Amino acid sequence: MRNDKMTAPPRHPVTADQIRSGDPYEISGGRLIEVLPTGRRGSRGNLMGGTVLDSDPAVESAGVDTGFSPRPDLLRAPDVSIGNVSSDPGWATEAPSLAVEYADRGQDEADLQQKILELLDAGTRWVWVVRLHGKRRVEVYEPAASEPSGARRIVRPARVLHPGEQLVAPGVLRNPVPVEALYDREAAHEITLRNLLQRRGYESLEAVQAQAMAKGLEQGRAESLRAALVDLYEAYGLVLSAEQEAAVQAMDIGELEALRAALKRERRWPGPR
């Protein structure tokens, strides 16, 4: 969400308290970094990835473009953040447990490298970089993946996963995430549905269907028992009162079977003579 009026770029060095929510900037080492609008492909990915991950049963908080500032000279906003995203105003002070960045054509790779390092140094456990240009893939970065290179640190992915493979984040996500669910709409919807069902106590759509079928069979059996009881009463020359008919309609299968057994044994409505 952007402000109606954008603040003018502050002078260097910049601190996080000089940036307002919605201003198109991040800060790295007190240096102002302009954040440009996201293209169509990237914006779709942000929406799908955020929805898929936020719906995971283990996730308690998530955000899109959430700014976090663990110290005054640093302000970073991953495309998707999982964990440590409260509803309080202002910048988050703790890094997300899982951060997702979407990288498309024209990506500033040097800044992306720096952003990954800063996230990992601040406590993020995993950074997933979803590559939308060229062959689709997801690069997984972890804290142990960085290495010194002269005066500059280089971060390398611990793993690179492709469509058909699954991403995991133990302790953060309950379910594995298919690579394609982070950019393909149909795959994202399928995984989101699975996650939402699990939040309601169902393991899958198949489990919901099986439960509905079992419930339907049980209801059908109960109706058959009620009809059989009425026929049995009529065969014995008995007539159910309105109160007895209401009682039969309210009975479950166990009660109906018990009533049928009693009727066969006593040939009357059970109870005192």
The main sheet comes to: 6 strands, mixed
Shape: elongated
Report the CATH superfamily of the largest domain: tt1808, chain A
- Which architecture of the largest domain would the CATH scheme give at its second level? Alpha-Beta Complex
Structural class: alpha+beta
Number of strands: 14
User: How far do the termini sit from each other?
Assistant: 76 Å
Helical coverage, percent range: 25-40%
Q: Look at the structure and give the CATH class of the largest domain.
A: Alpha Beta
Q: What is the tally of helical segments?
A: 6
Roughly what is the average pLDDT, rounded to an integer?
Answer: 85
Order of helices and strands: EEHEEEEEHEEEEEEEHHHH
The CATH topology label of the largest domain is: tt1808, chain A
- Poorly predicted regions are 1-6
List the helices and strands and how they pair.
Elements: E1 25-28, E2 31-34, H1 40-54, E3 62-64, E4 68-71, E5 74-76, E6 80-82, E7 98-103, H2 109-122, E8 126-131, E9 137-141, E10 146-149, E11 152-155, E12 159-161, E13 166-167, E14 177-178, H3 185-199, H4 205-235, H5 242-250, H6 253-266
Parallel strand pairs: 7-8
Antiparallel strand pairs: 1-2, 3-6, 4-5, 6-7, 8-9, 9-12, 10-11, 13-14
Helix pairs in contact: 1-3, 4-6
